[in-house]
UniProtKB/TrEMBL annotation:
Similarity section: Belongs to the imidazoleglycerol-phosphate dehydratase family.
Protein name: Imidazoleglycerol-phosphate dehydratase
Stored Gene3D superfamilies: Imidazole glycerol phosphate dehydratase, domain 1
Organism of this sequence: Neglectibacter timonensis
Keywords linked to the UniProt accession: Amino-acid biosynthesis, Cytoplasm, Histidine biosynthesis, Lyase
Extent of the signal sequence: none
EC number of this enzyme: 4.2.1.19
Gene: hisB
Statement: the UniProt record of this protein carries the keyword Lyase: yes
Domain of life: Bacteria
Primary localisation category: cytoplasm
Top class in the EC scheme: lyase
Amino acid sequence: MERYAALSRKTKETEVSLEFSFDGGEIEVSTGVGFFDHMLTAFAVHGGFGLKLKTVGDWHVDCHHTIEDTGIVLGKAFAEALGSKRGINRFGHAYIPMDETLGFAAADISGRPFLVFQAEFPQERTGDFDSCMTEEFFRAFAMNAGITLHLRCEYGKNTHHMIESLFKAAAHALRKAAILNNDDVILSSKGML
């Protein structure tokens, strides 16, 4: 069973098209935000995901709409590619060290979207990426993927490292949660997620 989704979304602010696969594949990311491309590429590599993504946004404003709308579409694709959620592990977590930084993520593919985000970045920007957009991206992703996601940067001094540790931790946690086990059941006492 292939777990794959292809989606696009066009608004007056952005145009996003992507292909997402839980089973790996090509990784091609272009958003016009260099650091964000780096983070999404790391997310795909560490999650073992296939990701072909192109976002064109209203850069004359700032990076906000580009990043948030990418999160919306990636979240929707994640949810669609999961299918029935039958047989998934549902839960996953990971600690990721990156030099002086330690990032943590815990995920529940629950059908109940929620984000808890705890990180204070010492630098306002990393390249052309506003640091505050890290939380906005993950909120858009979690809400549209229908997952509960907790992210915490335990400590760090370099904003690049701190943000990257969170993207990698999220990828590892989500990969573990989405893995198909040998049980053909939905891991919920309700019988549905």
